[in-house]
Amino acid sequence: MHINSKIDEADISKAIIEEYMKELYDYTECDVIVVGAGPSGSVAAKILAENGLKTAIFERNIKPGGGMYVGGMLMNKLVVESPAEKILKDVGVKTLKEYKKGLYVCDAVEAGIKLMAGAIDAGAKVFNAIETVDVIYRKTGICGIVANWHAVSALPKFITCVDPLCFKSKMVIDATGHAAEVARVASEKIGFKFIGMEGSMWVEEAEKATIRHTKEIYPGLIVCGMAANSTYGAPRMGPIFGAMFLSGQKAAHLTLQKLKKQKKR
Fold first, then answer.
1. What does the alpha-carbon distance between residue 209 and residue 188 come to, in Å, rounded to a whole number?
2. ∠ CA 86-128-172 to the nearest 5 degrees?
3. Per the count of CB atoms within 10 A, which of 18, 166, 256, 262 is most buried?
4. How far is CA 28 from CA 56, 115, 169, in A?
């Protein structure tokens, strides 16, 4: 097999820097910013992108996927209940099988990768290793995020004078999981009700609460997934992902409805 060996080291750097900066520049303004590339965030981003919205996902970790890859106690099987299995079928998860009536199990790694690939294939853009540290707001509500490299937060305080950058959007979705990072910082600085900690485990109630609490908590800011439960202090559900997926679906539909109303004005 022949490989092109006439490659200049500088061209590799130029390709990375030029193409990345083009995309970062392009997404300084977009329709929707999804913060967090876990189960609810990836589902929401896929639906939004499929509907033609310019959608950016900002994920602080190097790897997208959130807690999907390890199931429970590092055992990489993912469990969902009906009707959430339809979301996994939609992205082509082949290992999905019915374990008990209405309860499904599949390979967690396959599910995580295919959900993320589904969002990307639909047109969503993922910016990993970038942390959301604040929000942009106006009198009408939240209109974007303030972000920095996640690695900056790990540096000693005396050398972290690294100012963040701003990314504007029509809507922001907090899909940051247990920490509910966007809702937390917005509540502290703007001021609205925020509990900030999910309760102990009660699977049945937690699954219902996750979907129920997926809502616009402040103009321009929707919470979904575990961020929704943390915002309202609802129970945790542990290693079952049905409500996570359906919450992301609901967050996307709420966003579409709001932007449609804004367009009519």
1. 23
2. 65
3. 256
4. 10, 25, 8
d(CA 163, CA 30): 21
For 124, the token pair is 């969503």
Q: How far apart are CA 19 and CA 133, in angstroms?
A: 25
Could you identify the residue written with the tokens 């807690």? Answer: 67
How many other β-carbons are positioned within 10 Å of the β-carbon of residue 65? 21
Q: What is the DSSP string of 2-33?
A: -------HHHHHHHHHHHHHHHHHHTTEEEEE
Query: Domain residue spans in the chain?
Result: 30-264
Fold category of 30-264 in CATH: FAD/NAD(P)-binding domain (3.50.50)
For the chain, give percent helix, strand, coil, nearest 5.
45, 25, 30
- Tens-place pLDDT, residues 193-203: 899 999 999 99
Scanning the structure block, which residue is given the tokens 């690939």?
117
DSSP letter at 139 equals T
Q: What is the pLDDT of residues 168-200, one digit of tens each?
A: 999 999 999 999 999 999 999 998 889 999 999
Q: Is residue 171 a contact partner of residue 257, using CB atoms and an 8 Å limit?
A: no
Question: What's phi and psi for 168, nearest 5 deg?
Answer: -95, 150
